[in-house]
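Sharing a chain and its predicted structure for anyone who wants a worked example. Both blocks are below, sequence first, tokens second.
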Amino acid sequence: MSSSKPCVLLVEDEPAQREVLAYNLEAEGFEVLRACDGEEALLMLDETPPDVVLLDWMLPNVSGIEVCRQIKTRNDTRNVPVIMISARSEEVDKVRGLETGADDYVVKPYSVAELMARVRAALRRVRPATVGERLSYDDIVLDAETHRVTRGEDEVKLGPTEFRLLATFMEKPGRVFTREQLLDRVWGRDIYVDTRTVDVHVGRLRKALTKGGGSDPLRTVRGTGYALG
């Protein structure tokens, strides 16, 4: 499973509902992590920060509101969009959900199509390349839909791995990614790859980007990893 697939953490204690949602998310091309209560959700966040969280309000043990509050107060997960799902349609509940940090709020019963559209909208903000957007940084333009990269007037020829690597950097310019984070996003968490492989592919990406004589946009952060710009 390639982790260029965006990852959704689905937190829902009702098994039938959980499976229907997971089925639809997988059909849309998402990787789905399932949690049946708040405690399990928080453990999963430690292991695998997802791209989006779909969170039911009414959960056993730790409530959805509390899970949302913890996601939004932790440095490593505070930018992960949370879409809260609730049977509570009262304005006061909606406000409470949003004040806790939820990025969106969907009331049951909802249409699956609408929920999928909201997940894609949330993803567009955090990982634009996975929904076919165009990304640009300085004179580099990456078109996720046509799989083309240009620098200035020149087309940059990249293999699929280098393309995913560049997309990851361009989604968060300036952010330093560790080799482990790059392995997770570009190769996928089900594949065993040595961290030195990351260095090899970053080297190839550098070579391709500077072929036309432009400066090297990638920065090596000693002892940590790499960043764009």
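Comments welcome. The chain has two domains: 7-126, 159-228.
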